[in-house]
Amino acid sequence: MSSLSHELAAHVDRVSFDDFDEAVLDITSDLLLDTVGCSIGAFTSPPSKALRAEYGDHRGTAGATVVGTDVDVPVETAGLINGTMARYLDYNDCYMATGGACHPSDHIMPLLSVAQSEGATGRDLAEAIVVAYEVECSGLDQATVRERGFDYAAWGPYSSAAAVGKLMGLSRDELVDAFGIAGASNAPLYITRRGDVSMWKGLAHPYVTHNAIQACQMARAGITGPTEVFEGDYGFQAVVSDNDLDFSERPTGDEYRILETGIKYFATGYYIHSPLTGALELVDEHDIAPDDIDAIHVDIFETAAKALATPEKWGTDQTRETADHSIPYSVAVGIVDGEVTPRQFEPDRLRGPDVHAVMEKITVSEDPDLTEYRRDHPRHIPSVTTITVDGTEYRSRVDAPLGHAERPMSDEQLDGKFRALCDGLLADEQMERVMALSADLPDLDTVDPLLDALVV
Q1: HSE (CB half, 13 Å, CA atoms) of 222?
Q2: What is the CATH number of domain 270-398?
Q3: Could you report the per-residue pLDDT of 310-335, keeping only the tens digit for each?
Q4: Average pLDDT of 227-252?
Q5: Which of 21, 56, 132, 220 is most buried, judging by how many CB atoms fall within 10 Å of its CB?
């Protein structure tokens, strides 16, 4: 009996490294380097340390290395810890899907762990990364999940199982079982990213991928799962999203969705990048000092206004997780400091009275015209930022911020971001080694040299 899971398994099976052109390989290497940098940058973060303390003594026969250390743990545990490090700073990539934003590089570090455990090559890893991007991004393009209260990571069971299964060499039937096991057991809720945001924001997708790795292990061992996890009674389409799904498309050339991913220039929620870009451009162009500002107003589309400009986002005692999903905090600290990196979310900076003074001048409104524009141009992040100084209004509209696929960061900016994230944790020689290995990903016989170069 054929099902959507069978169709998806056939789609995954058809994706081949041999079909990738230079642009796909280049962005895959760039995203690997960027995600590794985000992981090292979060090595000392509270959840990363907590997970290493809890799971560092766990051992397994199919182990993988905890990034930043020489400690091996079960592969699914390594995937959880390494994925959490990549995601925690909210500095990893973003894809603007029709159904909302997602961070497909959430998969990269767990896939690196699986590649190590399976003895896979760099070509194999590149292939799996592209699969993960295709499944999650195409899924969210076809079927939004937030309307029914689910998080974007609700597509993670399927994208993760697809990519992990690709690396593990699962048959199509085993992939179908893995989709059923992972999908029936993981449907994360959108509350993760609403209101006062907790640490779980950075763990939600890594935990789903952890579970998908186990689903693939079970499928390989002969455990079966529901074959109609999408269209069956009480399946994905009945509970999560009732949109039609089609996995028959085979991307070629410039159709791969990984090419439409934005690499973050700022360490904030991606919807904030447009008003932040606009504010910093106005401040620079008109030489505006923070104390001279009378008012700042941000017009933005509905989803962003509802998620990133609720009353608690003006609080003076925010957690870093709430602050990096706050338009007023991120715009204010950007104007005061001239940058928004992980440093701007350290506890002392979050309490800065100079930042709070600017926050008090910020208002945010949903603009129906921008909401409509976003609906017609789902890859864009439309916003209009207006700064008032002595009665004069300076206005900037931004649809594609720096780092967006239409406005990509330069190689120098990407390298600078990586070096800044690794500063004080990796030696210069290690950074050079990691950069070279990432660029040469397709030529790696194993991924071990990359992990060896990341020991802090």
Answers
A1: 0
A2: 3.30.1330.120
A3: 999 999 999 999 999 999 999 999 99
A4: 95
A5: 132
CA distance 29 to 24: 9
3-state helix, strand, coil split of the chain in percent (to 5) is 60, 10, 35
d(CA 11, CA 4): 10
Residues 6 or more apart whose Cβ sits within 8 Å of residue 110: 78, 79, 80, 82, 83, 160, 164, 206, 209, 210, 213
Residue 62 pLDDT > 90, yes or no? no
Tally of CB atoms within 10 A around 349: 18
* Domain spans in the chain, listed from the N-terminal domain onward: 4-265+431-452, 270-398
pLDDT tier at 99, thresholds 50, 70, 90: confident
Half-sphere exposure of 282 (CA within 13 A, CB side): 28
CB 19 within 8 A of CB 252: yes
Neighbours of 207 (CB within 10 A): 18
Statement: residue 101 has pLDDT above 90: yes
Nearest to 162 by CA among 10, 303, 51: 10
Q: Which residues pair with 101 in a beta bridge?
A: 96
Q: Centre a 10 Å sphere on the Cβ of residue 375 and count the other Cβ atoms it contains.
A: 11
In single-letter form, the type of residue at position 78 comes to A
Phi-psi region of 253 (alpha: psi -120 to 50; beta: other; left: phi over 0): left
Rounded CA separation 252/50 (Å): 42
d(CA 318, CA 119): 43
What pLDDT score does 100 carry?
Answer: 87
Give Cα separations from 90 to 78, 218, 268 (angstroms): 20, 31, 6
Q: Please name every residue paired with 365 in a beta bridge, in sequence order, or none if there are none.
A: 299
Q: How many Å apart are CA 452 and CA 436, to the nearest integer?
A: 13
Q: Are 376 and 368 in contact (CB under 8 A)?
A: no
Structure tokens at 288: 């505006």
Nearest C-alpha neighbor of 75 from the set 111, 31, 123: 111
Per DSSP, 264 falls in state: P
pLDDT at 61: 66
Provide the 10 A C-beta neighbour count for residue 255. 12
Domain 4-265+431-452, second-level architecture: Orthogonal Bundle (1.10)
User: Any idea what the Cα angle at residue 207 is, between residues 131 and 64, rounded to 5°?
Assistant: 75
Domains 4-265+431-452 and 270-398 share a fold: no
Crossing angle (nearest 10°) for helices 428-439 and 411-422: 130
- Tens of pLDDT along 4-39? 999 999 999 999 999 999 999 999 999 999 999 999
CA distance 428 to 423: 8
Residues 6+ positions from 70 with CB-CB distance below 8 Å: 455
